[in-house]
Amino acid sequence: MSEQQEWWRSAAVYEVYPRSFRDGDGDGIGDLAGVRAALPYFVSLGIDALWFTPWYRSPLADGGYDVEDYRQIDPAFGTLEEAEALIREAREVGIRTIIDLVPNHVSERHPWFVEALASPPGSEARKRFWFHPGRGEGGSEPPTRWKNNFGGGTWTRTTDADGEPGEWYLHLFSSEQPDLNWTHPDVAREHEDLLRFWFDRGVAGIRIDSAAHIMKDPALPEDDGSHAPGRHPNLDRDEVHAVYRRWREIADGYDEPRVLIGEVWIPDGQRFARYLAPDELHTAFNFDLMTRAWRAEEYRESIDRMMDLHRGAGAPCTWVLSNHDVTRPVTRFGRADTGFSFEAKRWGVDTDLALGRGRAHAAALLIAALPGSLYVYQGDELGLPEVEDLRPDELQDPMYFRTGGESPGRDGCRVPLPWAGMRRPFGFSPDAGASTWLTQPDDWYTYAAERQEQDIDSTLSLYRASLRARREIPDLRADDFEWLDLGDDVIAFRRRQFVSITNFGSEPVRVPPGLNVFLASDASSRGALDPDRTIWARVAAEV
Predict the structure, then answer these.
(1) Which of 418, 422, 456, 419 is nearest to 440 (CA)?
(2) 56: Cβ–Cβ under 8 A, 6 or more apart, which residues?
(3) CB of 262 closer than 8 Å to CB of 315
(4) What span, in angstroms and rounded, lies between the C-alpha atoms of 180 and 106?
């Protein structure tokens, strides 16, 4: 396969959360018109592909991951015709389109689930989902005590036509997202049709949400931690691989093969690598590094581990610092605990944003230097912090509600982007008086893209320079990689004649002789690399 056909191996992919990217019609909600208007911005940034979180018709109980109709664009975002035009126009300027598919569940408003609720127990309509009688007297207890990814329970009880309590249905996420039963032939057939529907419209790839969750044990055993690998009741079951092998056949059937990208949150590296078999997924998100603390030993161990796993599978690594689910890097790296986990997310955590900004710059440059594909979440190229003072009446994320407000949820990383101007909505909407669906902080004019374009030391300028270098320097498109030993607190590596050095320590370190530095995450002392800094250099003499 040619380098052009394997573009995904070293691509820079930009994640678009449509609701918050840019508003084209003035209603305060991001839409496809806003994205189409921003195509020159993506070109100047150096992006190879856009990944859209769900743009389908949805009640938005979970930010669009509760899909009502996969063949229609949500009216808040535009129309199917606009999506087709966007796919075409982006490709004309050299940018491919990746979209989300959510095979684990649908919206409670999906026609299948509406039909299932109106049908009796045991009906074919209900067999597409996981309906089950309850336990205990009168079936009053849920069938299992499985863990919900958003907090709370995983089963919701229905009400029969006569008003009496009925069966329970399974939802590993919110109750508005009933899980599909992948042993039912309709489910497999429908998703194969959906792949073709969007591939035929020019979509270059599919990002598969919750890829490891789709299969369940029909015996519904409790998760007591004693299961063998591949036999967990609802996660990473061996049966998932047959599904993705079939999807790969479909993707490979196009003149320009389409790409399958998995969201695979599992800690076992060998189990993770199975999804990257040559006849399954092309790539999978590498969440390991994204959750690590800002320490050299943590990053070194993660890079080594993930590169080894991917090398064994013959697949490229994916490198990412954040996405629409996790705390933004500028905020995360400015805290005492610089790692990330959903369980640890809480209100009122002290943050040093200046410290976080420097570390976020250094981390962005570090991962952009690694072999593989790079993912950038919208707004990270502007250095946006997490917004942690949204009003309670604005919050919409089910994580917030299902934990009883204990978790702030994920809305803070989804606030609409600032583009220009000194006052809200900072150019997000063509209507200067528009109110955005989540309130932007008053000081976000300092992060506006237009303002940063004039500043060579801005976060946006750093991202543009690094992405341009990834495209222009052949050494950064190759797979070569060699560790350099510059001390325990330093991560340094060489790729042919290219060198990247990051100082995780608390003291400056000497830059080795024979290097011509051409890009730095932030300024350092002459001849040294200050703490929380990354430099890129060319080898002028042997290091």
Answers:
(1) 418
(2) 64, 67, 68, 69, 70, 71, 72, 73, 74
(3) no
(4) 7
Nearest-angstrom CA–CA distance, 366 and 379: 18
pTM of the predicted protein model: 0.97
Q: Are 130 and 181 in contact (CB under 8 A)?
A: yes
Residue 1 has pLDDT above 70, yes or no: no
State yes or no: pLDDT of 543 exceeds 70: no
Phi and psi, residue 258, nearest 5°: -85, 165
Residue 416, classified by CB atoms within 10 Å of its CB into exposed (0-12), middle (13-18) or buried (19+), is: buried
- Give the three-class secondary structure for 310: helix
Dihedral sign computed on CA atoms, order 490, 496, 497, 498 = negative
CA distance 314 to 273: 10
Residue 345 token pair: 């997310």
CB of 440 closer than 8 Å to CB of 424? yes
Q: Which element (helix H / strand E) includes 58?
A: none
Q: Are 307 and 286 in contact (CB under 8 A)?
A: no
Do 402 and 148 touch, CB atoms closer than 8 A?
yes
424 near 436, Cβ under 8 Å? yes
Two tokens, residue 11: 């691509």
Distance CA 7, CA 48 (A): 8
Q: How far apart are CA 154 and CA 138, in angstroms?
A: 19
DSSP code for 487: -
Q: Residue 284 and residue 297: Cα distance in Å, rounded?
A: 23
Q: How far apart are CA 177 and CA 172, in angstroms?
A: 8
Q: Please, where are the H alpha helices in 25-79?
A: 32-37, 39-45
Biggest CA pair distance of the chain = 83
Mode of pairing for the β-strands spanning 533-539 and 515-520: antiparallel
Q: Which residues is 535 bridged to in the sheet? A: 501, 520
Express each pLDDT in 333-387 by its tens digit. Answer: 999 999 999 888 999 999 999 999 999 999 999 999 999 999 999 999 999 999 9
The confidence score (pLDDT) of residue 81 equals 98
The DSSP result for 175-224, as a single string, is TTSPBB-TTSHHHHHHHHHHHHHHHTTT--EEEETTTT-S---TT-----
Triad 448, 453, 455: Cα angle to 5°: 100
Residues 6+ apart with CB under 8 A from 349: 335, 337
Please say whether the dihedral angle defined by the alpha carbons of residues 395, 401, 404 and 407, taken in this order, is positive or negative: negative
Helices then strands (H, E): number in the chain? 16, 20
CA torsion sign, 412 to 339 to 374 to 475?
positive
The structure tokens listed for 341 are 């986990």
Output the DSSP codes for 439-473: PPPGGGGGG-HHHHHT-TTSHHHHHHHHHHHHHH-
Q: At what angle do helices 240-252 and 185-199 cross, to 10 degrees?
A: 30
